[in-house]
Amino acid sequence: MKPQVDFYILHTQSRQASARLSCQLVDKAWHQGYRIYIQTHSIAQAQRLDVMLWIFKEESFLPHDIYPDVLSPIQIGYTEQVYEGFDVLINLTEAVPPFFEQFKRIAEIVDDTPMAREAGRNRYRFYKKKGLMLKTHEIHR
């Protein structure tokens, strides 16, 4: 079965919008019983997201860690390697991760900048060519 890909197109000037949306998607997926892998472009971005997941919602606990330190049900990674067994991929990079096909769902977050939009269009075309089911969500904040 091929994964479903959801593109979240952000319309905002907030620099924290994509990280905040990532946290909201993680919270929702975790409470639906999914195991989540978040792909970032660097260790620095992974560390920032790690902090945000701890503080973004006081009443919520999201068991997470930076890959590969501990095998938590929510992992934040920045390399081209990932353990198997995760259900949802949240991609915060400009490229399609090479391991995308092992997930049931993929969330692509596209920031409101010209470069990010173009990279998002390229990822959209890539997934479409692979025959995946694509959905687009416009997010206004």
Automatic annotation (TrEMBL):
It is an enzyme of class 2 (transferase). GO terms for biological process: DNA replication; positive regulation of DNA-templated DNA replication initiation. Gene3D superfamilies: DNA polymerase III subunit chi (3.40.50.10110). SUPFAM superfamilies: DNA polymerase III chi subunit (SSF102400). Keywords: Nucleotidyltransferase, Transferase. Its EC number is 2.7.7.7. One of its GO terms (molecular function) is DNA binding. InterPro entries: DNA_pol3_chi, PolIII_chi_sf. This is DNA polymerase III chi subunit, HolC. It comes from Candidatus Thiomargarita nelsonii.
